[in-house]
Amino acid sequence: HGLSYEPSPDTLSLYVAYESHFISSRSVKSYLSGVCSALEPIFPSVRESRASLLVKNTIAGRLKMAQTPVTRKSPLSADDIASMITKYDNGSHDDILFACLLAIGFNGLHRLGELVWPDSKALQTSRKCISFASLTLTPDHVEYDLPGHKGNRFFEGNRVAIYARADGADALPVLHSYLASRASFSTTTLHPQLFVRLDGSVPTRSWFLRYLSANFSRDIAGHSVRSGGATDLALRGIPDHIIQKAGRWT
């Protein structure tokens, strides 16, 4: 092949390109480090060649070529939320709870973990639950305290406000229906948490996702609620910085 046996930047770059056809491009970087360690006693300048811009760019290029397309779940739409509110309007307490969580999550740009408990009991803590005592209802909006979320590890909390809207995705009517149901059962009426199932337990992630999968295709997942709410605001012409603030994105 006529190549120099010296581990020059050209040689190492060709090695990276060659090996990437047989092993994962992410592994080539580790392989190259091992090669350099083995050659260093014989070729002291191999580390300089390894640090060259040519070799770095070759590795970066191979990593980009090996990337797989990012797959994201589809966002829910306002029509999707409206259809669930209509479907479960006269359902059981848990049915109404699901529709309420869906509407609140959509309009409040909530992460799923802010509304339900994780399935692992070791991770379940009331510190992250929205308390019933923090709820404030007015004719045109609802407010409550969000005690903690993914970007708020020290639990300073946020005050979330959701305003009435003119279409079927309005969260206020279904919230009122849920609160009426909540007040009519002994297992729920005195519960300290705002969102609670008929048996007195806090809804879990798997419980919510079972409802979601029963009504939507596999292209819809838990994050579709939050992304759908943000998409809906953008479609309604809300500026990006307002959406960022409403969704508590830092």
From TrEMBL:
It comes from the Eukaryota. Residues 71-250 form the Tyr recombinase domain. InterPro entries: DNA_brk_join_enz (IPR011010), Integrase-like_cat_sf (IPR013762), Integrase_catalytic (IPR002104), Phage_Integrase-like_Recomb (IPR052925). One of its GO terms (molecular function) is DNA binding. Keywords: DNA recombination. One of its GO terms (biological process) is DNA recombination. This is Tyr recombinase domain-containing protein.
